[in-house]
Design goal:
Helix content: 25-40%
Mean pLDDT: 88
Distance between the termini: 54 Å
Strand order of the largest sheet: 17-16-5-9-7-23-24
Radius of gyration: 30 Å
Number of helices: 20
CATH architecture of one domain: Alpha-Beta Barrel
Number of strands: 25
CATH superfamily of one domain: Aldolase class I
Structural class: alpha+beta
CATH class of one domain: Alpha Beta
């Protein structure tokens, strides 16, 4: 993400061409004019980013009576450097982050050390868990704080009352610590996905942009994981046209690949992450040859000839799938020498109708013509439920394309992550609220995932429990040392599990990614993130991975964290009961 700012339009006037030479807009062209030809007015604007600069000028030249009366010139110049400019998303924020910040600043509280947790309360669509995506963009966003001039802040914090605060914000860099789960991690409700420990003013202003990034990407990633778990066949993400804007399309596609999609149609996602994008043809390509059966055949043949050596997928439902589409595809494949020996891979796409019925019929026709390796790719408003149903019906589909169901997380578009203060200086705090579900866990926390060896598991180990502890509490120390410990169900104290020393392996889920304001995160490619998710996924039992009524994992908090939580509540409830203003 790079800085972008626009300079307002500027106007200059003067003698043509001599004053133009003084203003620095000279060129050999202007020097070729003799002095005193006339007057000019010039209006220009500039847009500048870290990796680009563009200029646009419109000039009117009023010539002397002995020359042409008026000349208009419009010049547009764009300098392309290394990357596409993006706005500074550190300031994609809510106003109240900065109104609170002003109070912290003016009351001398801005440097109190706060700990905030980003977590979610309920997984979407009755899921057992969610997929982490977005932490890389959060780290990048945090690094952009304090890169704007005081003039930028005056646009939303105007007036003399904010002058000192604006000056402070223009130099306020993030100086704290950030702990986060890796992209591709599996996170359960109430576990800290990101923990920020920093001066409260720095930590507070991160809330909105951080939630904006994480809620979007985790919604898409979690939905993509559901769709991909509905089948053993590859799923391609191609929902950019239905995404809620270019940013959502680009980073949503990234999240989808992390969570299991084999590919994306989004070229920008591919370029940014070093992965190939995929795509074939639309119906418009076929109808551009005229709405005739022979036009369809010509379109297929031209496409094959211009993409020889690549994966060839022909869209066969533009007019009639069985009566002409599949027949023209077979005809074009054979005329161009495409058969089961073709190394690039080839197939057809179904985009309408009864996909189960049509896929079976098309498979039979292809096999009858000796094209047994021709793949069948299916699209058309698919999601995990339709894919599951297609496979129950015996559909002969080799690969699926899914658009808006993934790109917009259509069934559950709002993920619901929150960012809550859990400690100020050394004092743990919590929000009680009127709703029980909004009661949060206080204090500076860490989550451990507990594994046991299981030769029958695909990864050689299986997840047995997660436990969130206060950092350094007795349970955390026992886990770190590999000693015996017991966890209890927070809602039912009769349910408990003891892990004996030597019987388990533990891994902390949060790692430090920013220290003293500097990024310390290990870089991972998109391919590595996707592989990490698959490893995590297959460390859970099949019953925990199923889509409908999944078996719920043991996800608990340490006894020390529970006791702290109850003691704060007890003290607070007593204070509320005794409170009066009379």
């Amino acid at each position: 993400m790079m800085d972008v700012y626009d300079k307002p339009a500027v106007t200059r006037t003067g003698k043509f061409p001599e004053d133009m030479l003084k203003h620095g807009t000279s060129s050999d062209l202007y020097k070729s004019f003799r002095p005193g030809l006339g007057q000019y007015s010039e209006t220009g604007s500039e847009a500048r980013g870290e990796h680009h600069c563009s200029l646009c000028f419109e000039m009117s030249i009023h010539m002397s009576p002995n020359a042409a009366k008026l000349i208009k010139i419009r010049i547009f110049v764009k300098f392309k450097l290394t990357a596409m400019p993006l706005p500074n998303f550190a300031y994609c924020s809510d106003k109240y982050q900065y109104t609170m910040g002003k109070s912290f600043f003016q009351t001398g509280r801005k440097d109190r050390i706060a700990v905030f947790n980003l977590f979610y309360r309920v997984a979407p669509e009755h899921n057992n868990w969610a997929v982490v995506s977005g932490t890389e963009e959060v780290i990048e966003m945090i690094g952009k704080l304090g890169q704007e001039s005081p003039d930028f802040y005056e646009k939303f914090l105007p007036g003399d009352l904010y002058k000192d605060f604006r000056e402070y914000l223009s130099t306020m860099k993030f100086t704290g610590e950030v702990y986060a789960m890796r992209e591709g991690e599996i996170a359960f409700p109430n576990q800290p996905i990101i923990t920020v420990k920093a001066p409260i003013i720095e930590a507070q202003v991160l809330e909105t942009p951080m939630l904006c990034i994480m809620n979007h990407q985790m919604a898409v990633a979690t939905k993509a994981s559901r769709v991909c778990r509905a089948t053993k066949h590859p799923v391609s993400e191609f929902g950019s046209r239905r995404a809620h804007g270019p940013w959502a399309a680009t980073f949503g596609a990234k999240a989808a690949i992390i969570a299991g999609c084999a590919s994306t149609s989004n070229i920008l996602t591919g370029v940014m992450n070093g992965v190939p994008s995929t795509g074939t043809m639309a119906h418009s390509f076929i109808t551009s040859y005229g709405s005739t059966v022979e036009g369809e055949h010509k379109a297929f043949t031209d496409y094959i000839k211009t993409h020889m050596g690549e994966n060839l997928i022909l869209l066969i439902d533009t007019y009639d799938t069985l009566k002409c589409g599949i027949l023209n595809a077979i005809r074009s494949f054979k005329e161009c020498g495409i058969d089961d020996s073709y190394p690039g891979g080839y197939g057809i796409r179904l985009d309408s109708g009864d996909l189960a019925y049509l896929s079976v019929k098309v498979r039979n026709i292809l096999d009858e013509h000796g094209l047994t390796k021709c793949k069948i790719f299916a699209t058309n408003g698919l999601d995990e439920y339709l894919i599951t149903d297609l496979e129950i019906q015996g559909a002969r589909i080799d690969s699926y394309g899914v658009g808006d169901a993934i790109a917009t997380s259509k069934a559950a578009p709002c993920f619901g992550g929150v960012y809550k203060l859990v400690q100020i200086d050394d004092e743990p705090v919590l929000k009680r609220s009127e709703d029980t579900i909004k009661l949060i866990n206080p204090g500076f926390q860490v989550t451990y995932r507990i594994f046991k060896t299981d030769p029958e598991s695909e990864t050689g180990e299986i997840v047995k429990a997660d436990v969130t502890c206060l950092r350094g509490d007795a349970t955390a120390q026992a886990i770190e040392k590999g000693e015996s410990f017991t966890i209890y169900d927070e809602q039912d104290r009769f349910k408990h599990k003891t892990f004996e020393a030597g019987s388990y392996v533990a891994r902390p889920l949060q790692a430090q990614v920013i220290k003293d304001g500097a990024c310390t995160a290990q870089p991972h490619s998109l391919t590595e993130k996707a592989a990490y998710f698959q490893k995590n996924l297959h460390s859970f039992s099949p019953s925990e991975r199923r889509l409908i009524n999944p078996h719920y994992s043991k996800v608990d908090i340490s006894e020390e964290l529970r006791s702290l939580k109850l003691s704060i509540l007890e003290k607070l409830n007593k204070e509320i009961a005794e409170f009066s203003i009379d």
